[in-house]
Design a protein that fits this description.
2 copies of one chain form a homodimer. With 452 residues, the first copy, chain A, is α+β, with helices and mostly antiparallel strands. Chain A has 2 domains: 256 residues, BirA Bifunctional Protein, domain 2 (2-Layer Sandwich); 106 residues, 3-Layer(aba) Sandwich (Rossmann fold). Helices cover 31% and strands 25% of the residues of chain A. Chain A is built from 13 helices and 21 strands. In chain A, strands 3, 7, 8, 9, 10, 11, 12, 13 and 16 form a 9-stranded mixed sheet that branches. In chain A, helix 2 packs across helix 10 and helix 3 packs across helix 7. The N terminus of chain A is likely disordered. Chains A and B meet through strand 1, strand 2, helix 3, strand 3 and strand 4 of A and strand 1, strand 2, helix 3, strand 3 and strand 4 of B.
């Protein structure tokens, strides 16, 4: 009995990630189906629900299933890497913030019924925080005698936030629970606060560049958040709920909330275009609105307490996932940026009972372990071991989930020099490669990603 | 102007982790101080608060500061590694669970005022989930036609849970928000469910072994959770709120809730000892209590729906952090297991203005970058760049925070063959080593950790 025969009952046990071991309930929703509670459906939402990336729990509230968690973990990793580079420090603030803090800044009233609130057994009212300016200011205020030497201080967290949206919609795009990266900066004066602000904006540019989907940084309105300066990061998409104006003459790019839509507020040109954007990041130079209300001070050289100058910077992490899928996907096929795809490549071995089965089996195990040795593919290869399905059926599924690379081990694996079919969804190409060429293909891709 | 002089204004910029760049508000609390809301104080809570690991936000609710997040991240990493080994898949369930699910299992009433509840703008009542048996059962029930081939299914998450404790106490040990790793298993019959149960228990043994603090697995009572079999994982400590009975004759080790405290329920021996334990993990073989109530079924070979057999397995992650500090620490000095210490080693260079300053500066930069190349120390070395303090003062601080290794660059750095003083807090030793010996010391330690 050879290794193939031994393994035949439970195939491919040596391969780390096998599709049959992944909980991915596929659930085809008829196109004209009405959603629960009349939620409006976006393309990304429909595809992510149908293909088992997320699953609805309640209106505006979703389970992340294993493939969704993998994509999210990749995004979190990018964020942590870039935050480290600017010396931002990771913290975790509690979900529940005492309502008295929000009362003191006036936001308990401003947010009104958008806030989830609860009363504890001691009759204290808390909010499920949608953001943490009050909490972090109160934390800083609680530290006695912070010297000017401690600044700039940059604290961030990646935690769930909550908002009782009137109309949750578009899945993760506007949910009632969402994952946000929120960073708060503290500086001793406005000049250094502006310096920190620019540094964080550069960091956001780096994060969006790593994600790899074209983004737009535009001037934003400070709105109810307050402060003196604000920028927004957008992905352009028809379903975007913001409208962005770009002036073809002076280059001004801004949310129409800030500048209007008919002519450029900077150069008065009427040569402007309007497009829809999905807001995925927002930065605010806040000044002392929160630090003054909550007494977040530092001690200057004469030991006199002075209000700190704050910045607040948000990235909608769960929204980014939905937005990149929205922007890149086709009507019936999801697409992911290479950096966030749940798996970079999927391997499809021959169907059981086919004449290629045994040769394909050995080849598959070898090529899986070879590819796993490449840093760009380590723990990023998935094997579609549903060998009771034809190769064709499995290719269709792989295209729908949008794994960037599909490696098919088909009839050409029987040749003297076995060939693999490599489908590159990003380039929309399909080529036959031998083992050596296949490895080289990925090595070069990896080099290019790192060089870019 | 040499490199040292150039760098003198902002020293040690080449070193990745510098203490002056870490937000760690030290806050000495008088021993007889009354806590807010009469919270009871444990040693770990006092030390973690005083030394800037956590900070209180509200009763039973804490900010994790950067050093606390680092320790927590190490614990999460261990958990993820071991979960992967048993094929458990990571998911994220929403914090808010609709109250109707908890009503259907009777637990809305059972938990009563321990639950945080809220009502949304549509007058729907939700709970801030303390655990997710209902949510996961509802998820499985929502997937139509799961075949028996899909099982065993193991889904886990590491998310915040909530409980409106009457008396929050001991800091992270019994908070109102806590981080939990909760795993839910589904099997097609009780026999395979028991097999999965044993596999997860083995996995928990591996996790606690990696954490490295002596633990005890004891028989537990199923209590309100239900089911037929339960085990608890404990750290023994005086402040532990559970009492554990061990029979010296037959070896039975169990929570007294299950077996009483006067004689062994297995062999009737009265040769028993009682000790206090902090419960940090709990496993339950649940049977079909939840799956039946919420219709979590699979289809057998005849396509007939059958209730799934569940297991539920919790690890109190934030509680583990507090418990290991509680067990290991001295009255005024924190101690961490090597695996969870915020940094493995701290380096203390000479005081500014001392005769060793310049020689020590170059030596410090070199030894930092050398040690960073060791896998066991990569991104795990902290430099105490508060060079305005004496070496002695900084050693006291380092001992209080409990970095397992303290490397002092003192007067012996001026010798022909410079020597470092290495304080090993775990062995309570202090030895002088040259550069080569220092590297070897850590290399050997790393090998031992991996061999054990």
């Amino acid at each position: 009995m050879n290794a193939y025969q031994k393994a035949n009952s439970k195939l491919y046990l040596s391969v780390r990630n096998r599709l049959t071991r992944i909980f991915q309930p596929i659930n085809i929703v008829p196109k004209d189906a009405k959603r629960k509670n009349q939620e409006i459906l976006s393309r990304s939402q429909r595809l992510m629900l149908e293909l088992g990336i997320i699953r609805q729990a309640n209106p505006g509230s979703f389970h992340f299933l294993p493939l969704g968690v993998r994509a999210l973990d990749k995004l979190l990793h990018i964020v942590d890497e870039e935050m480290l580079k600017i010396g931002a420090q990771k913290v975790i603030f509690p979900t529940l913030t005492h309502s008295k803090l929000w009362k003191s800044t006036g936001r308990l009233e401003d947010f009104g019924s958008e806030l989830f609130t609860l009363t504890d057994r001691h009759n204290q009212m808390y909010i499920l925080s949608p953001t943490h300016e009050e909490a972090v200011s109160d934390l800083i205020a609680s530290v006695s005698q912070i010297s000017y030497k401690e600044f700039p201080l940059k604290l961030y967290q990646t935690t769930n936030k909550y908002r009782d949206e009137i109309k949750p919609r578009f899945g993760l795009m506007r949910g009632r629970q969402f994952l946000m990266k929120d960073l708060y900066s503290f500086d001793i004066d406005l000049e250094s606060a502006k310096h920190t602000y620019d540094e964080v904006c550069d960091c956001y540019n780096a994060i969006f560049t790593k994600i790899g989907v074209p983004f737009h940084k535009v001037m934003g309105s400070v709105g109810a958040m307050g402060g003196s300066l604000s920028h927004e990061y957008h992905y352009k998409a028809d379903i975007g709920e913001d409208q962005l104006m770009r002036c073809s003459d002076c280059g001004l790019h801004a949310n129409i909330d800030l500048v209007g839509r008919d002519k450029c507020s900077n150069c008065n040109s009427t040569n402007v275009t309007i497009s829809n954007g999905i807001e995925v990041g927002h930065t605010f130079l806040l000044g002392d609105k929160y630090s003054k209300a909550l007494k977040a001070n530092y001690l200057n050289e004469k030991k006199k307490p002075i209000s700190l100058q704050m910045g607040s910077y948000g990235l909608g992490l769960s929204r980014i996932l939905a937005a990149v899928v929205e922007v890149l996907s086709q009507e019936e096929e999801m697409r992911w940026p290479l950096a966030l795809a749940p798996y970079t490549a999927i391997i499809i071995p021959p169907k059981e009972g086919s004449k290629e089965e045994e040769a394909g089996y050995h080849l598959t195990e070898r090529v899986c372990s070879l590819l796993e040795t490449l840093p760009c593919l380590e723990n990023n290869i998935l094997l579609d071991d549903r060998i009771h399905f034809t190769i064709g059926r499995r290719i269709i599924d792989a295209r729908r989930v949008g794994y960037p690379f599909i490696i098919v081990i088909g009839s050409k694996c029987m040749e003297q020099m076995p060939l693999f079919e490599l489908v590159d969804l990003r380039r929309n190409t399909s080529i036959n490669l031998n083992e050596e060429q296949l490895l080289l293909y990925f090595k070069e891709m990896f080099n290019n990603v790192h060089a870019s």
